[in-house]
Amino acid sequence: MARKGSIEINEKRKRLAQKYASKRAELKAIAADRNAAPEERFKATLKLAEMPRSGAKIRVRNRCMLTGRSRGNYRKFGISRIMLREMGSLGLIPGLKKASW
């Protein structure tokens, strides 16, 4: 199980990314616009740099919903490989069968 603090930090990052998503996209569009004035693009870049880094979507880490494990996660299910195997063996995931040969 992951440390409680790691899970909380990730939740905070999710909230911040959602909060600043529209503003960040707006500033990125201005900074990337080649037709805009150089001064305007530079101001947009500075404002983007002033925003909290944790507000970037790339900072959010995919974690298991059940255990908080950060590695070996399946996006489709939102859980780690270990929990997927356990739940699949118990028949808790519809349509999933454990292979044996």
3D architecture notes:
Strands 1-2 form a two-stranded antiparallel ribbon. It has 2 domains: 1-61, Helix Hairpins (Orthogonal Bundle), CATH 1.10.287.1480; 62-95, Irregular (30s Ribosomal Protein S14, Chain N), CATH 4.10.830.10. The two termini are 31 Å apart. It has helices at 4-32, 38-50, 81-90; strands at residues 73-74, 79-80. The protein is mainly α and 101 residues long. A hairpin with a 4-residue loop joins strand 1 and strand 2.
Secondary structure elements and pairings:
Elements: H1 4-32, H2 38-50, E1 73-74, E2 79-80, H3 81-90
Antiparallel strand pairs: 1-2
Keywords:
4% strand, two-stranded antiparallel ribbon, 3 helices, 30s Ribosomal Protein S14, Chain N, Helix Hairpins
Q: Which word captures the global form? A: elongated
Mean pLDDT: 92
Which architecture name of the largest domain does CATH use? Answer: Orthogonal Bundle
Runs in which pLDDT lies below 50 for 5 or more consecutive residues are none
How do the strands line up in the largest sheet? 1-2
Fraction of residues in β-strands: under 5%
Concise structural overview:
With 101 residues, the protein is mostly helical. It has three helices and two strands, in the order H-H-E-E-H. The model has no long low-confidence stretch (mean pLDDT 92).
